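For practice. Any example?
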Amino acid sequence: MTTVDGAVRGGRGGAAGGVRARRRLVARVAARTGGGAVRVFLVLVALFWLMPSVGLLLSSLRSPERIAGSGWWQVFRRPAEITWDNYSQLLSDDKVMGSLLTTAAITVPATVLVVVIGSLAGYAFAWMEFPGRDGWFLVVVGLLVVPVQVALIPVAKLFGAVGLFETTAGVVLFHTAFGLPFAVFLLRNFFAEIPRELLEAARLDGAGELRLFTRVVLPLGGPAIASLAIFQFLWVWNDMLVALIFADSGSPPVTVALQQEVRQFGNNIDVLAPGAFLSMVVPLIVFFAFQRRFVSGVMAGAVK
């Protein structure tokens, strides 16, 4: 009986082992096949996502007559159509080039102010004790649901009363004010995940709050700060609603300048296409530049 039971158990074990081996083989085949299919799908999605950008680039390299007569994909059949004359005209257009400088003058301060103030406030809400801390943080969270459109008229009246209407400083302040709630919320939650023991050890070594913030919290918060900078920069650079209302009509940002070109000169595609492409390239450059820091910060935190 013992021998029979052992044989039965051995047969079952062998069958189970064969089943497990077949399952592992199927899993490996499915993983390889699925991985390849996923990669192909992601490549197709990326190509589909990049198609408008490629079309805009190729359109900006064609003459207005070619653009009006055929689609941008005809460049692949006739590469001789490519010309840099449109970009030469763009560089000579003082309004469009000035609008790029105005956009940079608005975007850079608005991004820096949100990152600096948001980092300080996030650290205070996460690790400093002061009266009403939780209540004030709830107020900040509540401001996240306030739409920009609600504040346009009141802020316009306020800026008109203090002399900030149709000024670059007014646009910067508006973007900073509406970017801070999200910045404080994001950074406070990220800073709160830092181990308390690490901060207490730094305090035992004699570090004050400022040194603790600059030497410990900021390096560890690099990924969140990089993400915040990307979001804020893209939001401000691509904004047209706030710029259309609060910016100086004599030197508008690039989004408003291109919209005015469409309204006044509907067939001025030789300026619109390269201008739109340049306005799109700058956020992409900033995104990929900050993405490297973001990935390095994530990897550093993964192996610490």
Summary: The first helix runs from residue 2 to 60. The two ends are 58 Å apart (CA to CA). The CA atoms of residues 26 and 265 lie 62 Å apart. Confidence is low (pLDDT under 50) at residues 1-19, 297-304.
